[in-house]
Each structure stands twice: as structure tokens, then as C-alpha cells.
Design goal:
Blueprint: H1 8-17, E1 20-24, H2 33-43, E2 47-51, E3 76-79, H3 83-96, E4 100-103, H4 110-118, E5 122-125, H5 129-136
Parallel strand pairs: 1-2, 1-3, 3-4, 4-5
Helix pairs in contact: 3-4
Length: 137
């Protein structure tokens, strides 16, 4: 894989210019990585859209059961699901018209990442938004 899906220009653009992040797998459990990352993104001024089957509200934001149900344009889809589920989420992100997908540390699906690139999305894979912010400042 190398750094093919870790282009620093793409990472910077997504962290600096994106406004709305749909976090797939986000729950109200503060001990989960998705919750920590969503809170960080909110602190950095991003709008968070929780996406989980229960459609629960998380961090004050209304949740949706699927990406297709999200009623606002999504800049970045954070894929906080097990690696074996990542491909399906990436395909949903493409179908929903997202501009980018971000697969966090340990979530690697090169075929899905390539499908997203082929569909015109930016892709970051096996990177952590918190770490990337820390490295830049």
C-alpha cells in the first residue's frame, strides 16, 4: 500500500476545507475511537453526522441509519467499521455523493479505496485525523 492513500495534500485539504463529516459507526459510547474522533472534529469546527443502524443522536447531532438517509451534502465519510465492512461503506459513500472517504488506522481495503478514487472521491486510508492534525501543528 505504501503512502498511496496518504497524500499529505489530500489530508490537509480534507482537514482544512471540509465542513461536514458523516461518521459511519459512531455511537454514544465515549470509549470508542469513532466517538473520540467525532468530538475532535467538532472541536475543530466540523459538522458531525452520526451514521449507525440505531440512528441515535450523538454529540448533539441527529443520527441516521444509513448514508443514503443523510439529508445534507457530505464532504467526508469517516469509515469507523471493521475492515471487512469498509468496502460496503465506501460503496455507500460513492452512491451518496460524498466527496471523500477516510478510513482510519487499521481499516484497509485497497480495492474499495480504488473504487472511490475511480468515482472521483478523495481517499485517505490507514490514517488518524487526530494524529494528522498533531503532525501539522
Amino acid at each position: 500500500m505504501g503512502d498511496r492513500f496518504a497524500d499529505q495534500n489530500v489530508i490537509s485539504r480534507l482537514l482544512d476545507e471540509s465542513r461536514t463529516w458523516a461518521i459511519v459507526g459512531l455511537t454514544d459510547n465515549p470509549d470508542r475511537t469513532a466517538h473520540e474522533q467525532a468530538r475532535l472534529l467538532q472541536q475543530r469546527g466540523k459538522r458531525i453526522v452520526p451514521v449507525n443502524p440505531s440512528a441515535a443522536e450523538v454529540l448533539g447531532a441527529p443520527g441516521y441509519a444509513t448514508l443514503a438517509e443523510v439529508p445534507v451534502p457530505v464532504d467526508v465519510v469517516g469509515v469507523y467499521r471493521r475492515q471487512e465492512a469498509a468496502g460496503a461503506v465506501v460503496d455507500e459513500a460513492v452512491a451518496a455523493g460524498a466527496k471523500a472517504v477516510w478510513l482510519p488506522l487499521g481499516v484497509i481495503d485497497e480495492a474499495a479505496a480504488q473504487r472511490a478514487l475511480d468515482a472521483g472521491l478523495d481517499v485517505v486510508m490507514n490514517r488518524c485525523p487526530a494524529v494528522e492534525w498533531a503532525l501539522r501543528h
